Structure formats: C-alpha cells, structure tokens
Amino acid sequence: MEENKEVKIAIVVGALMLTICLIVFIVHSSNNRRDNDIDIKIYKHYDTTGVNQGEYRECMISTEDALDIYTEFNKAKLLGDSDKITGQIITGTYKVVNGENNYIAFDANSSFIYRSDTNALYSFNSTIYDKVTSLCN
C-alpha cells in the first residue's frame, strides 16, 4: 500500500516537472520569434532643392532604442475610432516603419500620428515623439 503511494507521488512530481519544462520552452521560443519579427526603421524627411516632395533619410538607432520604439509602435496600432482626429494636418517629418509598408508618421512637437494601415490621424500620448526626434537630430 505504501509503495503505491510513493509511486503515485513520483508520477505526480514527474508530470509537474515536465509541465514546467514545457511552459519554459514555449515562453522562450515565443520570445525568440517575437524578437525576430522586429524590423523597425526610423526616417526623417528632408526638403531637397528642386524636388517638390523631398526625401526621407534613415536615422541610426540601437537595438535597445528599436525595442522601445517597437513597443510604442504597437501601442499606436491599438488606437481605435475614439482616438481619431479630424481637421488636423501633419507633414510627416518623422516616419517609423515596421516591415516594408507598415508605418506611422508624425511631426516634431506633435501629439498626432498618421497610421498607414487606416490612412487616418490619431491623438496619441507617447514618448515616441521625443525619442525619435532625439535619435534623428
């Protein structure tokens, strides 16, 4: 009778250890996959003489800054209809691009962002404005 009790305890402890190992493995592989998806680039718009539209030039950023900007970029993607702004215009002095065509744009000293996925302006309180402008200047 006592042997059965010990075997049952050993099976429960073994199953618990396997479960913990599996959870750690899943969380670790999920974090690695998420880090590989980060393709953040920031640009500043420069007016060029003789060209009507000017050009965007890439700003150099560190990995740590890219992670911070990526976090704020994802917060901007969560903005909804209640955050939309009408009757405002931005020139898009700064642009944060994730991937190839997915970006947000804003001006210095602004609290509005333009999202490329919705073609709309949003009110957005964030540290991204100061961080990007300091990195590009």
Q: What is the number of helical segments per DSSP (H or I, 4+ residues)?
A: 3
Question: In terms of per-residue confidence, which ranges show pLDDT below 50 for 5 or more consecutive residues?
Answer: none
The radius of gyration computed from the alpha-carbon positions, rounded to a whole number of angstroms, is 24 Å
Number of separate strands: 7
Helix/strand order, N-terminal first:
HEEHEEEEEH
* End-to-end gap: 76 Å
Helix content percent band: 40-55%
Strand order of the largest sheet: 2-1-4-5-6-7-3
Mean of pLDDT? 87
Which structural class fits the helix and strand makeup? Answer: alpha+beta
**What about the largest sheet?**
7 strands, antiparallel
Strand content: 15-25%
Give the oligomer, counting copies of the same chain as homo and different chains as hetero.
Answer: single chain
In short:
This protein is α+β, with helices and mostly antiparallel strands and 137 residues long. The chain has helices at residues 2-36, 63-77, 128-136, and strands at residues 40-46, 55-59, 84-85, 94-98, 102-106, 112-115, 120-123. The termini are far apart.
